[in-house]
Amino acid sequence: MKKYTLSLTTFLAVLTANFSLAEGLKDIKPPVKFPADYSVIFLVLGIIVVILLISISLWFLKKRYKNQPEKKQTYIKPAHEIAYEAFKSLEERNLLKAGKIKEFYFELSNIIRYYLENRFSYRAPEMTTEEFLNLLKESSRLNDSQKNILKTFLTHCDLVKFAKYGPTDIEIAQSLSIGKELIDQTKLRQGKD
Q1: How many C-beta neighbours within 10 Å does residue 176 have?
Q2: Cα separations (Å) of 6 from 13, 124, 136?
Q3: Can you tell me the distance from the alpha carbon of 121 to that of 86, in angstroms, rounded to the nearest whole number?
Q4: What is the spatial distance between Cα 142 and Cα 127, in angstroms, rounded to a whole number?
Q5: What is each CA distance from 145 to 153, 181, 185, 192, in whole angstroms?
Q6: What Å distances lie between residue 3 and 6, 7, 11, 12, 97, CA to CA?
Q7: Fewer CB within 10 A of the end CB, N or C, for the chain?
């Protein structure tokens, strides 16, 4: 193996020769800076903020809902159900067997009057029969046949209540039947009125 020895002069000569070659070379350019695109960052941050807001809102709503007392749904009986219950109660009280025909007719008349008030907002319990029948002439909520039935019914009740008329058993049964029939004809039907 041959040993190469390099003297200092040779080394300097070689080094200076390389510098003369390097004069045509240029220095390295610095890295090119691209304009910053923050739209992706803003989009991600925006999504994070929206998710946080929705989560916080849902948490508050859930907490608020849990703290509220549970609302009980109330059932409001239709006017015809109230009237049917009143008829049943009237029959169970046995006023007719006790000879209290006048009281029976007062109750019977009131059932129909309160039914009409609850069903049609007529102020029937507060009016005399004559006042109420005059009001009915103007109304279109009942047809003519129903108005005539009601007039006959209330007039018959007034005869018993105020004129001391003594109805027969058949008339009593008919009065009760007419009252129920009037309610059947005018009761609120599902999806109507």
Answers
A1: 17
A2: 11, 133, 135
A3: 18
A4: 18
A5: 12, 12, 10, 20
A6: 10, 13, 16, 19, 148
A7: N
> In a 10 Å sphere around its CB, with 0-12 CB exposed, 13-18 middle and 19+ buried, how is residue 26 labelled?
exposed
Q: Which residue has the tokens 């039907």?
A: 189
Taking a C-beta distance cutoff of 8 angstroms, is the pair 113, 125 a contact?
Answer: yes
Joined tokens for residue 158: 């007034």
In angstroms, rounded to a whole number, what is the distance separating the alpha carbons of residues 41 and 153?
A: 83
How far apart CA 141 and CA 87 sit, in angstroms, is: 23
The closest of 145, 42, 125 to 83, measured between CA atoms, is 125
Nearest by Cα to 112 from 188, 184, 162: 184
pLDDT for 92-118, tens place per residue?
998 888 889 999 999 999 999 999 898
pTM flag (> 0.70): no
DSSP H helices in 36-165: 39-67, 79-92, 101-120, 129-138, 144-162
Q: What is the SS3 assignment for 182?
A: helix
DSSP string, 48-60: HHHHHHHHHHHHH
What are the residue ranges in the chain where pLDDT is below 50?
191, 193
